[in-house]
Amino acid sequence: MLRTALYRTAMALLALALWPAAAMAVEDPLNSVNWSDMRAQFLGQDAYVFDDRVKVSVPNVVENQAQVPVTADARALADVQELVVFADLNPIQHVLTLMPINAEAVISFRMKVERGTPVRAAALTADGVWHVGGIYLDAAGGGCSAPALARQKEDWSLTVGNSRGRLWQQVDGTTRVRLRVRHPMDTGLTLDNVPAFYIEKLQLRSTTGALLAVVNIREPVSEDPTFTLQVRLPLADDALLVEGRDIGGNVYTSKIPARSKQSRSVVSVPR
Q1: Is residue 221 part of a domain?
Q2: N or C: which end of the chain has fewer CB within 10 A?
Q3: Can you tell me the distance from the alpha carbon of 52 to that of 30, in angstroms, rounded to the nearest whole number?
Q4: What angle do CA 246, 167, 60 make, to 5 degrees?
Q5: Could you give the CA distance from residue 231 to residue 254 in angstroms, rounded to a whole number?
Q6: For residue range 64-106, what is the model confidence (pLDDT) as tens digits?
Q7: Distance of alpha carbon 138 from alpha carbon 62, whole angstroms
Q8: What's the distance, CA 213 to chain centroid?
Q9: Is residue 22 part of a domain?
Q10: Distance CA 26, CA 67 (A)
Q11: CATH number at residue 214
Q12: Residue 56, domain extent
């Protein structure tokens, strides 16, 4: 009985010694009041860790709350299956999801913010664990409820879906893609009662049709969205194919030439 009592005491002391480390592992480093809801919404019951290898970059000073530059970078992790970006205190928290099928787990874009908020990226690795990184974005807000500037022009609908892009070959063999698509990206939250109308998906393909990356997009992405990604485009390919679809059912296709010395406008073809 003495041996059993000693064993139980030892186990209790070991658990007590390990408890602070375990608690710190799940404690939100950004101390957000919404973290438990964010975890339930985006991670469910899956295992997760806060991981400094998942980096989110935002400006120190926000000049335009409707066009805030953000970069989510999980390239330090291996076998990333999915990269989800969300903002805890936005009225619409989900910003976008990158599926880096044959691409690097990194994306840059611009988003709208309604107030100061933690902005996070969660990377799902092949072992089923979410790796969460983030940063607090200090902003005055109002971006989500601001009307799209394009709506002030009578002919705005004539340019919806038009795109402009460029490719750069990287020393590691990947191709950096920068793409801009004309679209109002209405959130449905403006005082003029304009309903939500936004691009919901972009697919990037090689010229043979092989899928390289998919970006699922939500309302907080800024008007005339601009994305920068890194894909593994085959060296023999002379172009990158892009297909976009908005929630109105409009489909836009474009082709970005490789080895282009200058940015080129590519008029997308609605289907």
Answers
A1: yes
A2: N
A3: 12
A4: 75
A5: 16
A6: 999 999 999 999 999 999 999 999 999 999 999 999 999 999 9
A7: 7
A8: 12
A9: no
A10: 32
A11: 2.60.40.2470
A12: 33-270
